[in-house]
Amino acid sequence: MNDDLILLGHGSGGKLSHQLLDELIIPNLSGVPAAGQNDAALLNIGGVKLAFTTDSYVVDPIFFPGGNIGDLAVNGTVNDLAMMGARPLCLSVGFILEEGFLKSELARIVISMREAADAAGVAIVTGDTKVVPRGKGDRIFINTSGIGAVEHSLSINGAAARVGDKVIVNGCIGDHGIAVLSAREGLEIDSGIKSDSAPLNGLVTELLPLGDALHVLRDPTRGGVATTLKEIALQSGVTVKLSEENLPVNAGVKGVCSILGLDPLYVANEGKLLALVAPERAGEALAIMRRHPLGKDAAVIGEVTESSAGRVVMETMVGGVRGVEMLAGEQLPRIC
Amino acid sequence: MNDDLILLGHGSGGKLSHQLLDELIIPNLSGVPAAGQNDAALLNIGGVKLAFTTDSYVVDPIFFPGGNIGDLAVNGTVNDLAMMGARPLCLSVGFILEEGFLKSELARIVISMREAADAAGVAIVTGDTKVVPRGKGDRIFINTSGIGAVEHSLSINGAAARVGDKVIVNGCIGDHGIAVLSAREGLEIDSGIKSDSAPLNGLVTELLPLGDALHVLRDPTRGGVATTLKEIALQSGVTVKLSEENLPVNAGVKGVCSILGLDPLYVANEGKLLALVAPERAGEALAIMRRHPLGKDAAVIGEVTESSAGRVVMETMVGGVRGVEMLAGEQLPRIC
C-alpha cells in the first residue's frame, strides 16, 4: 500500500489520527503545542483566560435518531470547551454545502443549531458559507469553533491524572456511534437507540466545586472510551484499570455491538464525559452526576493504579485482565 | 428550476450568498446579528475587546501561482480580523481530507500555513482533522477561525461610510481570482499572474493612527470590489461613485479578463483592502499605503457622493455613468 495516502482511519480519532498529528501536522505546524492533545487551547488575552477549540463535522447520515449534524456541531464544540472547565460563550459556524443540497434541509439543520446553542447558553456570532460542485462534497459539512471563559484556577487536563484517581463516566456508552450506524444501515427501527448528543457544560459547572480533586475531564467521542483513556494514560504517564463489569452500556447498544462484532468501548459518544477524580471526593462526584439529568446512569468504571508508562488494562467479566489500546484503523467512519 | 436547491452561486459571495444568509440562515440562527455582515464579530469578554471570525477554504486547484489553500486559509482569516482593526492573535485549523489525498501534499500545505502564520505574527493553537471517503470531498478543505484583540476605540465597520469619504484600494485588483482561474484552466504560463494572497494586518496597523478619519476597512474577496462596495453602500445608506479610469488593474489581468469576458471589478482579491477615509486625511492614508510593501500601487478609486439608499455607480472611461450591482450567480466558483 502506498504509504503516502490518507486513509479513512486517519480520521478515526484513534491510532492513525494520532500518528498523522504527531508525525506530520504538529512538526510542520510548530505553532500547535503538544497541549493540542487537549480538547481546547488555553489562551491568556489581556489577563482574561480563554479556551479556544475547533471541530469539523462530517457525520453520515446527517439526520439520525436523537439529532442531526447541526446540533451535533454545537454540542461537540461546547463539550470541548467544557472539558477544559471553561464556560462556553460563543461559536462560529462554517458551512460547506454541496451543490444541489436542499435549502429545506439546511433550514432544519440551522434551526437545530439555534436550539442547541440556546440549550447550552452560547451564542453563534459569526459564520461563513461555501458551496462546492456536485460530487465534490457530501451534502453538508459543518465546522464550529468556540471560545469559552476559564473562570477557575484549576489544572484540568489530560496530564493531571494521579494514582488513586477514580474514573467516572456520566452514563451509558456507545449510544451515539450505534445510533448513527443504525441510521446509516437502516436499522434504526430495530435498535431504538438514540444519539446521546448533549451539551455537557451544565454538568461540568456542577463538578467544578470539587476543586483540586478534579484532575481530568475528557469527552470520549471518536475512538470511544478506550481511546480517550489511553490518551489520558499516555499524557499522565499512569496505568488505568477498567472494570468491564461496571461499564454502563444500554441493552440495545450491547445487542447491536454483539451482532456486528463491535466493542462499545471504542464507539463514539457525544454527551458523555470521563472525570478522573481524587478518591476522597469520588463519591461526591458520582453523587453530583447522578443528580444531574445527564448523569443519572453515572458509574465509577475504573481507577488509576500505578504511575508508569501509559497503559490501560481491563478486568474482564470472566476474571481476566486484558490490555486496552487506541482504536486501530476505523471502526465506524464519519461518526461525527 | 427547483427553488429548494443550493446552487454554486450561493457560495459566490454575491447576491445569492446574501439572499441565503438573509432569508434562511440569519432568521433561523437568531444568534447571528446583522453585524454578521462585517468581516468578524466583536466580543467583549471580561472587559477585553476581541474580534472573532471563521472561513472555510475550498479553492480549486489547491496549488496556484502565488500560493496554495494553506497560506490562503491563514491570510484570509487574518485579513478578516484586520478589517475590524483588530490585531490577529491566534487561529484554529480544521482539515477535511478526502481519502487518498497525499500526505506529502498535506505536508506542503501545512508548512505553508506555518510560514503564513509566522509572517502574519499569529499562532495556530488548536486544530481538528476529519477524513471523508473517496468521492465525498475534494482532496482538502480547510476551515480557519481566528481571534484578534481590538485595541482601539474606533467604529470601523461597513455602516460607517460618510459623504465625502475617499475610497482607497492598496493595489491592483483581480490578481487572486485570475491566478486561480489560470491555474485551473492551465493558462498560468501564458498569463504569469500570481495570487496577491498576503496578510494585511501590518498595513492596517499603519492606518489605525488615522483615528476617527478611518471609517471602513473591508477586503474585497469573493464577489470582488464591486460586491464589497455595494455591501458597504447598503450598510451605510450612501452612494459610492467609482472612477473606472483610476482602478488599478495589472495588464495580465486585463488581458485574461477581456479574453474570457470577465470584469476585474468582480474578481476576488486576497491581499487587498478598501479603506473609506474622511477626505481631509485621504492623502495621508494614500501616502501610508504607498510606503508599505503591500500598498505601492495604492490608488483613490472613488468617493462617497451622497447619503441615499445604497448605490454604487461608476464613471466609465468613455465618460458615461453605469450602476454597479453585486455579483449575480457565480462568476468564478471556488476561488477561495
Automatic annotation (TrEMBL), chains A, B:
Q: What biological processes does GO assign it?
A: protein maturation
Q: Name all PurM-like N-terminal domain ranges.
A: 38-150
Q: SUPFAM superfamilies from the xrefs?
A: PurM C-terminal domain-like (SSF56042), PurM N-terminal domain-like (SSF55326)
Every PurM-like C-terminal domain range: 162-313
Q: Which superkingdom?
A: Bacteria
Spell out the InterPro entries in the cross-references: HypE, PurM-like_C_dom, PurM-like_C_sf, PurM-like_N, PurM-like_N_sf
Read off the PANTHER family from this record.
Answer: CARBAMOYL DEHYDRATASE HYPE, HYDROGENASE ISOENZYMES FORMATION PROTEIN HYPE
What NCBIfam families does the annotation carry?
hypE (TIGR02124)
Q: Which family does it belong to?
A: Belongs to the HypE family.
Question: What is the name listed in the Swiss-Prot or TrEMBL entry for this protein?
Answer: Hydrogenase expression/formation protein HypE
Q: Origin organism of this chain?
A: Citrifermentans bemidjiense (strain ATCC BAA-1014 / DSM 16622 / JCM 12645 / Bem) (Geobacter bemidjiensis)
